[in-house]
Amino acid sequence: MKVSIGGPLKLAFRPWVEGLSNIPAEGPAILASNHLSFSDSFFLPAVLDRKVTFIAKAEYFTTPGVKGRMTAAFFKGVGQLPVDRSGGRGAGEAAVKSGIDVVERGELFGIYPEGTRSPDGRLYRGKPGGLARVALATGAPVIPVAMIDTEKIQPPGKVMPKLMRPGIRIGEPLDFSRYSGMEHDRFVLRAVTDEVMYEIMKLSGQEYVDIYATAAKRQIAEAAKAQKQAQKEVQREAQKEADRGRQAADQEQTGQERADKEQTGS
What we know:
The protein is of the alpha/beta class. It has helices at residues 2-13, 40-46, 59-62, 65-77, 89-104, 130-138, 150-153, 186-204, 213-265; strands spanning 16-18, 29-33, 52-57, 80-83, 108-111, 123-124, 142-148, 167-170, 208-209. It has a 7-stranded mixed beta sheet with strand order 1-8-7-2-5-3-4, with helices on both faces. Strands 6-9 form a two-stranded parallel sheet.
């Protein structure tokens, strides 16, 4: 499946890559990437000779019907791992365990520390749970990755991608062995995550925002809702003003007609 998807992707989009030699030819590693587009999980594996396993929503694998089975087959083929993320803390534990399993098999594990796609192309604060815990529990090196321009190829909500060249910058492996055995220390988890995010920022050139992307999405949604409500208020006031204008004009016309009748009658 990887060959059948990766070949056409490279042929159609011709992604450019820097730092490919930083990916080990064998052995485990964690690829920590920014997340700009749904297509990130396809472009990165397409340029590598090794399989990369990402975590994906379980819904992609359990949707019934022919379309659901085709979707499940596709995500399995490109190395996506189903994890039920609807159960709060339990979902996070499942994701960490899945990542550890992949790494302990000597494979490449791909993760997006932001936890969700960037809503506006900026780089957001990394979540300290998954990435850091998998890295410290396994001792695997963390390789920062920057996806470039993928949000322009397939913005959120767009089905058909735009044909243009995305870029992929792969940084040097980061060693966190100095924190061995400290995977349950929240300050250590934050330090590891922040160090990785700093390297991703340098590779991507993105503006960094020190809040979570999920919070930013809520803010954007609330701002859009408030703007829509304000527009409705403006429209209502304009309608009221128009109604008052028509009413005044009707009253003036009625008064004029009454005056004309009185004048004619006299």
